[in-house]
Structure formats: C-alpha cells, structure tokens
C-alpha cells in the first residue's frame, strides 16, 4: 500500500515478528481477546475493555485496529502491531505518539493471550518497540504505566530500565486504584543484538519523524 507504507513495517527479534495485522491476523487477535487475556479478578487496563462479553471483546478488538488506521496522522498516531511467535499470533503491542516531532516521546501498551504468558514474550515484544522508538524514530523518552497490583507489567518495565515517574489515581471498577507511571530515557536504553527494523524509511513522515534537513 503505497500511501500507507506502515503495512510494510516490521520489527523482528530472535523469536518474534511485529507487524501491522492482516485481516487473518485480526481474526486471530479477536479470538485471543475472546478467550481472555488476564485473570478476571484483576483489571490491568485503565479502560476496562476486557470486562465485556467474549463476542464483544472480539468485535471491539477489530474496531480498535480499524479506528487507529482511519485516524492516523503525523501529529497523533498509534501503531498496533500483531505479535507473531513461530508463525502464530500471540498478542498485540502498541507504540503511540502525540506531537512526536516536538516531544520525541512515545508510550506503549500491550496484551498477550493467556496461554502465551509466562514465556518472556512480553519483555521481548516491548523491547522490540523500544528498539523501533529509540533506534528507528530517534525518540528521547518512552513512557508506560501499570496499576500497582499489575506485577507482571511492572517487572517488565523494571527489567528494561524504566524509572518511576509518579502516581496517578484512577477509578477502576468503581474503586480508586493507583497507577504507577514509568519513564525510560534514551540514555538508559541499550540496543540489543538480534532486533531489526524493516521497511521504516517510507514510514518516517507518517510518524512525524522525518530526518532533520
């Protein structure tokens, strides 16, 4: 697709491929969402989309992806990658930016199908988009956040070198819950071998990351 080259962008790691999903990939993501992506007793998301019924979670997954494609602009974008491990779609990794040309700041979010959790995939796919952000897009900062009882997400952030960046209080299922903000700077980022970016050049204007003249 010449006018939206993001569909040719890929990030590869020793085990994973991150790509904008095909329609078949979207079906696979919707199936995973319907199966569930976390313990129903917990809620790791600020928007509780996983509280919906399975069919609604599946449809919402499709609609969310379609919506980000339709609303993409260099001033505000959200790149939703399907994550494939050994050829099988296992989850979604998001990298987003707002006024990136000015702020040089990105944020991340993700989820994995429950049967693929506990295998180190979450760390590897977050590392992949950080590689894209810092080494591909020349970001200065990457921010993330997790509720204080989301130990798995916080552990990934700590492992990758994020530092505390404050606390926010959210209403979660009708009760107050603290979310810990986290920030990773370019100076604290270390590029790892085996992580590669493919097809980025034509995409740079869409990210607001055109090379300086």
Automatic annotation (TrEMBL):
PROSITE patterns tied to this protein? GNAT (PS51186)
Q: What class of enzyme is it?
A: transferase
> Which SUPFAM superfamilies does UniProt cross-reference here?
Acyl-CoA N-acyltransferases (Nat)
By its UniProt entry, which Pfam families does this protein fall under?
Acetyltransf_3
| Listed transmembrane segments | none
Q: Which PANTHER family match?
A: RIBOSOMAL-PROTEIN-SERINE ACETYLTRANSFERASE
Its recorded name reads GNAT family N-acetyltransferase
What organism does the UniProt record list as the source? Planomonospora corallina
Q: What is the lineage of its organism?
A: Bacteria, Bacillati, Actinomycetota, Actinomycetes, Streptosporangiales
